[in-house]
Write the structure tokens for this entry.
Amino acid sequence: MNQASIAIGPVLAVVLVALVLVAAVAAAAGRLGVSRAVVTASMRAVAQLAGVSLLIAAVLRSWWSTAAFVLMMVLVAAATSARRISTLRRGWPAVVPIVAGAGTADAVVVASGTVPWTEIAVLPIAGILIGGAMTAASLSGRRALDELRDRRGEFEAALALGFLPRDATLEVCRPTAGQALVPALDQTRTVGLVTLPGAFVGVLLGGGSAVQAGATQLLVLIGLLAAEAIAAAVMLELVANGAVSR
């Protein structure tokens, strides 16, 4: 076994169960109301990653299967974001900012030749960018709709002053729209000082050099910033135009 790899066995299972219990107990002690969600999310992660681990070898055999897997990721991300923002029926346009953000960043990375044009290289990058765009779309959409609800008077005052509905919405929502990028900005600002994120650790565990790990992580972080900025901006426009509502 590679000295840098994680040992698979009963000890790992015990550690994972212990960490889930710690998280659930901490949430319960703090009365955060998410203890059950912690457990169910962890169980889903185990089941989903087990399934993906068995499926990924078959997926990577051709571009058609890889493209189908990416499409599935986009659809799941859009459904997740839609439910976070509103409902699946009212929030389904969340697929637009996710595709716009992840698609643009992924196209720049792949077209530049920075990442090899192979299934095993493109798929993980696409997954990371789709996940980041999903988070930004969810956060920006939720925050924009919350602002419209909490500052309804200001919105109506803007309409009374002659603002168009889109402009009135942007007047209320735009000042806080950038908060959707706070997690990505903080992660980028503190990388190497506070955290060593997944791509960096993954390259090291795979036997790559520290320089290769750093370059890979930098590409991922900057790509995520681009994807999330686009996703947040597009989601704000969708809310302003009434395409996403509660």
User: Anything to note?
Assistant: The radius of gyration is 20 Å. Residues 119-150 form the longest helix (32 residues). The chain has a mean pLDDT of 86.
